[in-house]
Here is the input.
Amino acid sequence: MTPLFPEMESEVYKKIRKYKRYDQAIWTENKSHFIEQYLKYFVQVTKHGAYIDGFAGPQSFEHLDAWTAARVLASEPKWLRKFFLCEITRRGVQELKRLVAVQSETRDKKGRKITRTIKVIPGDFNRTLDDLLARGTITQKEATFCLLDQRTFECHWRTLKKLAKYKKPPNHKIELLYFLGVGWLHRALSGIRKNAKAREWWGKADWQTLRSKSSYAIVELVCQRIREELGYLFVAAYPIFDKNEGDRVMYYMIHASDHDEAPALMVRAHYKAVRARPSAVQEPLNFGGTQN
Here is the structure.
């Protein structure tokens, strides 16, 4: 299979492939650091790339230090060239515009200006994505990463399908980092009054069956669907714990890629992001491909 980063030297490949899966879990306050670390490794080998954040506004306006969009924009090296920050709430859009306004001019080590495009896109990501992709601003060969830090049912299944189908072979798919809020999912499912909402989120499959499944079984099913329906070779789910909830798994961060080396890069990022071991460790789930 064609490697993700053909420009990498063979010895660099060998170094990355030596990394083993790390069996500690991540706390909620460390998730943005996890994402930041992965993108850092991502751009160190691509030297370019596009970043899409479907739900980019702050998850908590009281804790902006954990805001993923801000961390990604500030991360080094600054080789991601295109940013598409999408948000539906008015307050979130305003905060994103303020964030973009304070970004300084970016230069490389030799003082040469690095051109970066940062666009704030207001509205429902499930709808604004169509225009974003139709414009062709993201090229077929451009390494692209999409963060989907949704609030329960925000991200529609057809949106995942659009992202997965955008790149045409032999180009690699847009990488996905999809958040599944299992900590409150059953309560949310039981409170659904309009079936259309659940159908948009879950797609054509029968969402009613999820009510009787365990959280672990649901995330296993999501990983299976991403692999089989969307065509991603490597799908791994990382549990995110909340200390305030007695080390309870609040959600899973599901990474999907068809790049040979991406899983190893994600494992490295996971290792860097971990800061404490919970009382009961649960290893990341792996579906659709082996990881070292």
In short: The domain at 10-287 is CATH 3.40.50 (Rossmann fold). The two ends are 17 Å apart (CA to CA). Residues 1-22, 275-283, 288-292 have pLDDT under 50 and may be disordered.
